[in-house]
Design brief:
Elements: E1 5-11, H1 18-26, E2 33-38, H2 45-53, E3 60-64, H3 71-84, E4 89-92, H4 103-112
Parallel strand pairs: 1-2, 1-4, 2-3
């Protein structure tokens, strides 16, 4: 583990966005690990992630599921994985840039530096 925080990104047919979102997270000043939870994307999303894992060794992880099992269960699977791997901070975000990766640092800081138990970033609030 290279970070105390992991960003869970569920995917289904995100080949157009996945490399861009991964690179955007890894370019942040704060070091985050990333867990991709892919629901058997037929467009090759998982293949792109596998190709990037060599570049981001020990920081980019993936759980591949057998089919489209849903967003909620993807997050649950990701949270279970994060707990099993001892992460202190767990952040969820979408792959389509509907969440701004630059906000990850603010969410992390709210918990790690300011002592919040929970930080929520929502485009609706």
């Amino acid at each position: 583990m290279t970070s105390d925080a992991v960003v869970i990104i569920p995917t289904y047919n995100e080949k157009e966005n996945i490399e861009l979102i991964i690179r955007a997270v890894f370019e942040l000043p704060k070091t985050f690990n990333i867990l991709i939870v892919d629901d058997g994307s037929p467009d090759g999303t998982a293949d792109i992630v596998r190709g990037l894992q060599g570049e981001f060794k020990d920081a980019l992880f993936m759980v591949e599921r057998s089919g489209k099992l849903g967003l909620g269960t993807a997050y649950i699977k990701g949270f279970q994985w994060a707990m099993e791997h001892g992460y202190e901070y767990v952040i969820e975000m979408d792959a389509d840039f509907s969440h701004n990766p630059k906000d990850l640092t603010r969410l992390y800081d709210a918990c790690a530096l300011d002592g919040a138990d929970l930080a929520i970033g929502s485009r609706y609030v």
